[in-house]
Amino acid sequence: MNELIVINTGPLITLARIEALDVAGQLPFTFICPEEVRAELAEGENAGHPRVAPPWLTVCPLCEHISLVALSALDRGEAAVIQLALERSIPLVCIDEWKGRRAALAVGLKVVGVLGLLGKAKLLGLIPAVRPFVKKAVQNGIRYDSELVERLLESVGGPILNS
Predict the structure, then answer these.
(1) What is d(CA 54, CA 63) in angstroms, rounded to the nearest whole number?
(2) Mean pLDDT of 75-99
(3) Quick check: 134 and 113 in contact, CB under 8 A?
(4) CB 97 within 8 A of CB 12
């Protein structure tokens, strides 16, 4: 059985921009998101951005309202992702934004981002290389710490970013 992972809006948009939604769908995860993430994606679509609705994503409601304390520190999607993971005892979340990652780690969740998903895909042989996806992300205005990218590429057997 696949491991459950709660995914946020940012990683879904990034995966769409770098044309890696199909890659993510092949990973050994069952991706779920709260309704708040689906709503953020719909808002983007209504504003003219491309539709992001992968068939492998399941939308789940929260049991409780999002805490006002969480909303004061995080955006609605991040707060809902963390809350859904806690409500359903799902230890893994996919969040790229630094504040959301820190908050998830603070409550004991494991955090992975798009780079981690791509690294897993490379290790499983789903993609031949991570570097083209990283380059596409950078071309789309997504910024990653160069040392982090270099460590990832080295860890999955790829060349360093500068080569």
Answers:
(1) 24
(2) 96
(3) no
(4) no
Quick: pLDDT tens for 11-48.
999 999 999 999 999 999 999 999 999 999 999 999 98
- The string over 85-116, giving b where at least 16 C-beta atoms fall within 10 Å of a residue's C-beta and e elsewhere, is bbeeebebbbbbbeebbebbeeeebebbbbbb
CA distance 118 to 24: 8
Contacts of 69 (CB under 8 A, 6+ apart): none
Q: Which domains does the chain have, with CATH numbers?
A: 3-115 (3.40.50.1010)
134 CB burial (10 A radius; 0-12, 13-18, 19+): buried
Residue 87 makes CB contacts below 8 A (sequence gap 6+) with 62, 63, 64
DSSP assignment letter at 110: E
Q: What is the DSSP letter of 62?
A: -
Q: What is the percentage of the chain residues whose pLDDT exceeds 70?
A: 96
